[in-house]
Structure formats: C-alpha cells, structure tokens
Amino acid sequence: MKSALTEADLARIKEAVAKAERTTSGEIVPYIVRRSGRYEVAVWRTAAIAALAAFTVLTLLALLYRGWSAHWWQDARFQTLVIAAAGAAAGGLVALVPWCRRLIAGKERMMMQVHRRAMAAFVEKEVFATRDRSGILLFVSLTEHRIEVVGDAGINAHVNRGEWAQVVRVIRDGIKTQTLADGLVEGITLCGELLHQSGLEIRPDDTNELSDEVTFES
Predict the structure, then answer these.
(1) Do 171 and 182 meet the contact criterion of CB atoms below 8 Å apart?
(2) Could you tell me the end-to-end alpha-carbon distance of the chain, in angstroms, rounded to an integer?
(3) What is the pTM of this model?
(4) Alpha-carbon distance 171 to 140, whole Å?
C-alpha cells in the first residue's frame, strides 16, 4: 500500500499539512489504511451461494436427463469437485478483487467498519491530545473508497459535519483516479481553508502538537 506513494508524494503531503496549520490552530493527522475490515462474511456467503448454484445446476441436469447411459458429469466425485471449485472460485474472487468485495460487503457494512476503524485510529494517534482539543483525523480507507473526517471537540464546535463534504470528495476522487497524493494534498489544503474560515485561527504561541507525517497501516 505504501508503494502507492513515492517519497516525493510523502514530502508533498507533509508540507501540505504544515502549510494548512500555519494559518489555523487545527492539527491535521492523515491516516491511510489498505482496508478497514476483512469482510469474511461476504467471502463465505458468496462461496456458499456459488456452491449452492453449482449443486442446483447439477441436480437439474440429472432430473432433466432422459438418456439410458450414465455420463461423466453424473459421477458423484465429479459433482463434488465442481461444487467445491465453484465455491472456492467465487469466495476467492471476492477476497482478492476489491470491487467485488465492495459489491458483496455492501455500503452499510463498509460504512460501519470504516467508522469503527477511524475511531480506533483517532485514539491510537492521540488526536485528542492538544491544548485546544483542535485535532482532526483525515482517515482514508482505500479498498472501501471511504474517507472519515473525525474532529475533536474544539473542531466540532466550529465546523459542522456536513462542511467536510468537499474535503471527502476530492480525496475520494484521488483514490478512484489513482492520484492519491494529489487528492490528499488538495483535501488537506481545503481542510486548512475551512478551519481558518470557521474561526480557528492560529494562536501567537501555537506549537505543532501532532506529527505532520502520514500514517500507513495495512
């Protein structure tokens, strides 16, 4: 996952965070994960459905066949192999292909999983540990194409949840078009502008309380 960003990209993102924080008291923490959940239920459910479909087809063939002689496809060992192969292939497809996993897992399940992972990252990175409770987590989950913006109490007092929509959109567009670094830089810039416009201006004695580095986790 980290290979999706070059050292130059990482430097650009870090600089975007630093630049955004020069005009606001907000502390921006970018956090990227390859995926927020394994979605085993979706994999096993798909495998079971595929195996059941193969069994149904074989059963119908047996019922509809009116010939006198037996054929190779009627052999129980072959049928067992087909059923197992169908389940394994379908389950493997969902497990290995991101768009298949998104389709089968479903929007609601992914939203819930990404939100939980974002809350865990918020605590893990101690985004709450700032003087004015002005930390803000930009959580990006690549497989799900979802972004969570989690602000601390000092942020939420000034910025409504719906106001992050533009920040989320540009980062998501970056994921979809394989320009993640550009999307993050633009999103972070917009985040800084929004915080400044919302009255979270930088204090004269402001210090950089949280790291500007991007956090990756697989």
Answers:
(1) no
(2) 7
(3) 0.79
(4) 8
Contact predicate 147/141, CB 8 Å? yes
- Within a 10 A sphere around the Cβ of 101, how many other Cβ atoms? 22
Angle between helices 98-105 and 40-64 (to 10 degrees): 90
Question: What digits encode the pLDDT tens for the residues 37-94?
Answer: 887 777 888 888 888 888 888 888 877 776 666 666 667 788 888 889 988 888 888 8
**Residue 1: is its pLDDT beyond 50?**
no
The encoded tokens of residue 185 equal 């830089």
Domains delineated in the chain: 2-37+106-217 (3.10.310.50), 40-105 (no CATH)
The tokens describing 135, both together, are 């930390």
Alpha carbon distances (Å) from 194 to 33, 68, 80, 106? 25, 77, 60, 31
The rounded distance, in Å, linking the Cα atoms of 13 and 27 is 14
DSSP alpha helices (H): ranges in 21-75?
40-64
Residue with the two structure tokens 């003087």: 131
| Helix, strand, coil tally for the chain in percent (to 5) | 60, 10, 30
